[in-house]
Design goal:
Blueprint lengths: L2 E3 L2 E6 L1 H7 L8 E2 L18 H12 L5 H12 L11 E4 L2 E5 L9 H5 L2 H12 L4 E7 L3 H10 L5 E8 L5 H8 L6 E6 L3 H13 L1 H11 L1 E4 L6 H4 L1 H15 L9 E6 L4 H12 L3 E8 L4 H8 L1 E3 L21 H9 L2 H14 L1 E3 L2 H10 E5 L2 H15 L5 H16 L5 E6 L5
Parallel strand pairs: 5-15, 6-7, 6-9, 7-8, 10-11, 10-15, 11-14
Antiparallel strand pairs: 1-2, 1-3, 4-5, 12-13
Bound molecules: pyridoxal-5'-phosphate (PLP).
Pyridoxal-5'-phosphate binds next to α12.
Length: about 425
């Protein structure tokens, strides 16, 4: 199976190539052309343990890797790193469920994907016979950086450089990053916000002369560990299926019964993985997109206009969601329309005018799939207190935003399904 750029169908890559490249050469994101290529019967994995489930699903989604190869990568990536071999438990809280994604080595949900990505990268290098050093360049609002440094440190043939907004990450996140050991890691503080960091990284990737010089003179090829990297996104599909399996096994829902999931969203990677799981056939009905005060996605999903032209970037208590340009939305829009020219045009409008509007039929499809809401810092604080008082469960600020949006959704939609709220950070 070949992947292609969201902005030009003719720019194709194998899964190994897509993982090594990160971004497509035209600035687009790699994606499959349609889901028909990766459909499989999700019920066949429901009774598996999490590692076997990961192996099965990832080798389906990344067909360059055989099941035996993937089993080893999954084993090496996850064994002994998470609090339990189950990786991501789902716990009942009140009348809803919380999917805990923060039980990995740096207590961030990004550990789930970033424990796998370095393995996928070295395996891709081998597969393609690439001897050049791969240098990961990544922007972070805190959690990606520490999880990526942890995942890549000491990995042969790969080095990593992380850009973070100076003053825009928590003190503990900064310390986790700048104290990472290993001689293949670098960390830079940038005077600017997360979008400045991400834009800088994107420019470095788009600079062909720079890439040529790096490769010719230093034998270094750049790649990305942000969720624009295909290999970073796919490991996230697994926990939607394992959570569903857990609900069925615990007798909370019947097999085949639909659920709704509520995702605290930033770069749109996590919720995109939920949509992939749904496309594969997992009975997820509604995808609830939760934002903090940086509510560009809430407005987009409700109106069809993505507008950052005069939107202020707000620093909130859920900094991993302080994002105005949600890169992975591009993959969704591409797969909904199948129109690479349209996507190239929308992205051009975004970079030139700071806004774009999607066609009416696309907005209709969005409304069938998604429901969007936001919760400000005060609301998140209240939610943390309420969940603690009512259910004796302590959630972090990002989770609290999603929790609050889930309650808004339930109130507006009394006929809702069982709701799984994703918890992306440890409260501690
Ligand atoms: C990265 C992150 C998010 C946002 O996830 P996306 O995939 O970028 O939408 C939410 N919460 C936490 C704690 C994160 O680290």
């Amino acid at each position: 199976m070949q992947y292609q750029s969201t902005r030009d169908k003719n720019l194709k890559a194998s899964s190994a190539q897509a993982i090594l490249n990160g971004l497509a050469p035209d600035g687009g994101l790699y994606t499959m052309s349609s889901f028909d290529e990766v459909k499989f019967d999700y019920t066949t994995v429901l009774n598996m343990d999490t590692m076997s489930m990961s192996t099965k699903i990832l080798s389906k989604l990344l067909p360059d890797f055989s099941e035996a190869e993937m089993a080893k990568l999954v084993h090496d990536g996850y064994t002994g790193k998470f609090e339990t071999d189950h990786l991501t438990p789902t716990v009942p809280v009140g009348e809803d469920f919380i999917l805990e994604l923060f039980r990995g080595p740096t207590s961030a949900f990004k550990d789930v994907a970033l424990s796998m990505l370095p393995r996928l990268m070295t395996a891709s290098k081998e597969k393609l016979g690439v001897d050049d050093e791969i240098m990961i360049l990544t922007a972070t609002s805190g959690d990606t950086g520490k999880a990526a440094l942890e995942g890549f440190k000491g990995v042969d043939g790969v080095s990593i450089g992380v850009l973070f907004p100076d003053g825009g990450v928590s003190d503990i996140q900064r310390k986790q990053m700048v104290t990472t050991t290993g001689d293949n890691v670098q960390v830079w503080a940038v005077r600017g916000n997360f979008d400045d960091c991400q834009t800088g990284v994107k420019h470095a990737f788009a600079d062909e002369k720079f890439a040529e010089k790096l490769l010719d003179e230093y034998r270094i090829a750049l790649s990305s560990a942000n969720s624009i990297n295909w290999g970073r996104l796919l490991p996230q599909v697994v926990y939607y299926i394992s959570s569903y399996a857990e609900l069925v096994a615990a007798g909370k829902i019947e097999a085949g019964c639909p659920i709704d999931v509520c995702v605290p969203t930033g770069n749109f990677g996590n919720i995109l993985a939920a949509w992939y799981a749904k496309q594969i056939g997992v009975p997820i009905e509604r995808l609830l997109c939760a934002s903090n005060d940086n509510r560009v996605l809430t407005d987009f999903i409700n109106t069809g206009t993505y507008d950052i032209s005069d939107r202020e970037f707000i620093l909130t208590s859920s900094p991993s969601m302080d994002i105005l340009v949600s890169s992975n939305l591009e993959r969704l829009l591409y797969l909904l329309s199948g129109d690479d020219k349209l996507i190239a045009d929308l992205m051009k409008q975004l970079s030139e005018n700071g806004e774009y509007e999607v066609p009416g039929d696309m907005l209709e499809k969005l409304h069938e799939l998604f429901w969007a809401g936001f919760c400000d810092d005060e609301g998140a604080k209240t939610a943390i207190g309420k969940v603690w008082k009512d259910d004796h469960y302590l959630c972090d600020t990002h989770t609290a935003v999603a929790w609050d949006v889930a309650q808004q959704y339930k109130q507006a939609n009394p006929e809702h399904n069982a709701v799984v709220v994703l918890s992306t950070a440890s409260p501690y």
